Amino acid sequence: MTLTPHEVAVSHLGRDQCAPHERIKSLRFIKNNIIGNKTKKDLYIQLGIVSRLQDIISAKDDKDSQLKVQAVIVLGSFAFGNESNVLSLINSGVIEPLLNCLNPTGDPKLIEAAARTLNAIYASPKVSRQHLFVGNHLNVLVQLLDVYSNYSRLRQETGMFHTAELVASVLARCCERPDHQMQIAASDAIPLLMRLLASGVAKSQEAALGALAALVKDNSELARLIAQMRLEKNERPASFILRLVRDKSPTMRLAAATCLAYLNRAGVIPEHNSDIMLTVLPILVKMLQLSGAVQEAAPKVLAYLIWESESMQKAVCDMEAIPKLVSIISQMDEEDNVYGIVGQKDKLKENSLLALAAISQLKEDCRKQVIEAKVLPHIVAAMSHPTVGVRAAACQCTRSLSRSVKNLRTSLVDAGIEAPLFQLLGDDDPGVLSSATATLCNIVLDVSPMKKSIMERGIVGKFVQMIGFGDNIVRLNALWAIKNLVFGVESEIKETVMRQLGYRTLAVLLNDGELAIQEQALNLVRNLACSREQDIEQVFKGLGNGQLLGIIEDKLTWDDARLLEHALYVLVNIAAIGTEHHKQSIMKRPGILRSVLGLMSHEAPAIRVATTWVVINLTWPDEKTAIGVHSRVVQLRNMGVEERLQSLTADHDLDVRDRVKTALHHFHLDRQQHEHNGNGMSDQSGAGNGRHGQNSRYGTHGSTGQDAHMAGEGYGNTGIDTTPVLTGSEATGHDHRTM
Amino acid sequence: MEDWNARLSEVQVDREDLNKLIMNYLIIEGYKDAAEKFSQESGAKPPVNLESIQDRMVVRTAIQRGHIEEAIERVNDLNPEILDTNPKLFFHLQQQRLIEYIREGRIMEALEFAQEELAPRGEENPEFLSELERTMSLLAFELNGPSPVSDLLTPGQRQKLASELNSALLLSQSQEKDPKLPALLKMCWWAQQQLDERCTYPKIKDFTKAELVMEPMGASPIGGSHGAGNSSGPMAGA
């Protein structure tokens, strides 16, 4: 059997087979065969070359570094192949010997080659970064950034900058975790990166920008530190980087824009707000029309930069970013059809979808532009894309678009997002799942015509399942969706939902380890115990004897504004439409009443308003239950509630003052009736008209107020994250939730 | 007009900057010896190691002579990352190898090479397929006769590849791929054209002499023969 030249070359690599120069020759042969050639890379890996290379680079003797250099280069070329190549390298344990090759007293060529190979390996997100942070490796690596050190001067200048560039790039790729970011910062890398940034050597500057960007991403501490440093002539890094954002080279512009985007999101360069708007945004938008790596990355940076910023989203919209993104996406779909090859430009598609999602996050105008650009069919198709990132991004788009009631009622239905969305609930990827569930939070709202059919598909069961098994974000979203689903619906639907979720589960969720989950669970109670007397009775019964009020009593002692608010509004609802028995059971809980009294002077106006509503509803004048009302007024007065209300008449919050007026009026009415008219009953018809008139004034006020509160707060949007959406009241149309 | 001259004399052009411009041109276009001499005479320090010019020129010469394998090996020695991260350039090199096989009449080798090396690249990147097809159709025509793909056999095809490779090498060395001087001359040329329609001014009529002459307004513009627009560098080793 004759061996192929490739097999011969591999066999030469064995330690005792050949003289060093023969082995070097074989390595060069292999190198020139595999560079640029993915099929050959696979072939050589199959021939078992990796362990031979591993032996060569692990050898202790440094006499002949040329052999090591070539072996390291060959390893690097494998890393430029596919992900599985990288994994075969990792599994052979090449990282540790590669890190050892960085020894600063060694051959500069070997250092450069090792830095390059490590950089190529770390391009894969699947490779653990742990090795670098153990022992002295990080310090050795960081020293290589120092192109101005005495030691470096002895060496060839171009190679030195190239090594520094590769090292900066390695650091950029090892910043995914905050503790890694901090460790790199602690190794004194930042001042060296700053000098590299100002070096004037283009590729080194780009690499320095990349590393700085990675260090400040989602790390406000390091972002602040870096923003406040000084370069030459006392210049701040941000203004220096702003000049690079106008550089001739697109890759430099991208690197600079990325760094500024992260600094800006960290909120550490407010003095550059207008520069970001007027310079960085247009430059990023223009990049959408370039090609290659810059076009691919630009939409992601754009999406990150404008996230949560209405003004920037609007600005990008005005720069015609939407048609550009849409043409990228639709063109790609056409190409896929022609070649039948998927996967070439997945990243570009994913990032473009993310940008669309970001642009349409907050402004209805922008959503309208997206819909009108006819991109929805592409988005819906992308929801079933084989690549997980694309699915997640597409889902993110539907989530942004579903924040609009108008879209919920029309475009999204027409585009048929329901089936693929439901399909995604079976996805393995947590990112996809969380986006999908967040979108569903909006789909299950009453305004959505899809609510009924998606319920018929068994969405509630899915949610229940996810609450049991998902990760915390998915659990939260699923619970959030259920809460939205039962908002303002018939008793029947509430019962169906609760039969599947179970009151026992609800009770457990009310004491979940995650505060956010507790809040949603309490919010669910609030939406269940609402609208009808029988609904309230159901919750009392469902949670078991005395349980409901026990839970409320407990929650009222927590120091968490949202939890408090939900708990208070459960009381508001019970006091508003519960039976006399329900109301009395509140009065039998001195713990609850004391908490309510205490919370009347809470620092948050919303809490003060809620407590006042509790009082208003408990003291609501009602002829049929006059005795009950009177006894409650007396009990509350004796506790000092009326006195506390008096002290709130000068509250700085208008809403509080209005509610307090109503509540005090109830106390006043009661006093009138029971002090001035000993025989209250007989006189009631006389005073009745007047009181009725007043009643209706306050009554109307009160009841719409209640509805508004239940509706407005029932979804309980505040905080958490932007997640479950449209959570505001559909009727009040808060800022971005236009009809 | 005096005003113009007065202002013109106020403009200070730093000799050092001019030297830098020239050095920039010599380095990017690959005049190593000239750059060395110029450096000695003018004292302008070359911003890069002059050896790197030599490296690029060796690669360029190899391509122009049709020695593609040799060029690939040199590039891989200089920076093994370039061809691994630049599939288009790599494809063009392999395509040129195929062309050279066909030119030499080594048909069997050409077919084998196309199958083994080029077809997989075409599968990876559909955009390469049509180029591959075009190259393969060389086999269907007389080598020296007229054909729709005869351009592939011209020196211009090698020249194009040599420039593409040169740019990639320059970029990897953090250098600009185009010299500044031709761009400045183009800009000057354009500015004069704009001015010609509006006023009379001392202009440069002949760029090789760079003398300022007065020319009455409306005189016919001077065709594109000044060479300002033609920046293609001289070819080392040609």
UniProtKB/TrEMBL annotation, chain A:
<feature type="compositionally biased region" description="Polar residues">
    <location>
        <begin position="719"/>
        <end position="730"/>
    </location>
</feature>
<dbReference type="InterPro" id="IPR011989">
    <property type="entry name" value="ARM-like"/>
</dbReference>
<dbReference type="GO" id="GO:0005634">
    <property type="term" value="C:nucleus"/>
</dbReference>
<dbReference type="Pfam" id="PF00514">
    <property type="entry name" value="Arm"/>
</dbReference>
<keyword id="KW-0677">Repeat</keyword>
<keyword id="KW-0539">Nucleus</keyword>
<dbReference type="InterPro" id="IPR000225">
    <property type="entry name" value="Armadillo"/>
</dbReference>
<dbReference type="InterPro" id="IPR038739">
    <property type="entry name" value="ARMC8/Vid28"/>
</dbReference>
<dbReference type="GO" id="GO:0043161">
    <property type="term" value="P:proteasome-mediated ubiquitin-dependent protein catabolic process"/>
</dbReference>
<feature type="compositionally biased region" description="Polar residues">
    <location>
        <begin position="679"/>
        <end position="706"/>
    </location>
</feature>
<dbReference type="InterPro" id="IPR016024">
    <property type="entry name" value="ARM-type_fold"/>
</dbReference>
<dbReference type="GO" id="GO:0005737">
    <property type="term" value="C:cytoplasm"/>
</dbReference>
<keyword id="KW-0963">Cytoplasm</keyword>
<dbReference type="GO" id="GO:0034657">
    <property type="term" value="C:GID complex"/>
</dbReference>
<protein>
    <recommendedName>
        <fullName>Armadillo repeat-containing protein 8</fullName>
    </recommendedName>
</protein>
<feature type="region of interest" description="Disordered">
    <location>
        <begin position="669"/>
        <end position="739"/>
    </location>
</feature>
Automatic annotation (TrEMBL), chain B:
<protein>
    <submittedName>
        <fullName>Glucose-induced degradation complex subunit</fullName>
    </submittedName>
</protein>
<dbReference type="Pfam" id="PF10607">
    <property type="entry name" value="CTLH"/>
</dbReference>
<dbReference type="InterPro" id="IPR024964">
    <property type="entry name" value="CTLH/CRA"/>
</dbReference>
<dbReference type="InterPro" id="IPR013144">
    <property type="entry name" value="CRA_dom"/>
</dbReference>
<feature type="compositionally biased region" description="Polar residues">
    <location>
        <begin position="228"/>
        <end position="238"/>
    </location>
</feature>
<dbReference type="Pfam" id="PF08513">
    <property type="entry name" value="LisH"/>
</dbReference>
<feature type="region of interest" description="Disordered">
    <location>
        <begin position="218"/>
        <end position="238"/>
    </location>
</feature>
<dbReference type="InterPro" id="IPR006595">
    <property type="entry name" value="CTLH_C"/>
</dbReference>
<dbReference type="InterPro" id="IPR006594">
    <property type="entry name" value="LisH"/>
</dbReference>
<feature type="domain" description="CTLH">
    <location>
        <begin position="52"/>
        <end position="109"/>
    </location>
</feature>
<dbReference type="InterPro" id="IPR050618">
    <property type="entry name" value="Ubq-SigPath_Reg"/>
</dbReference>
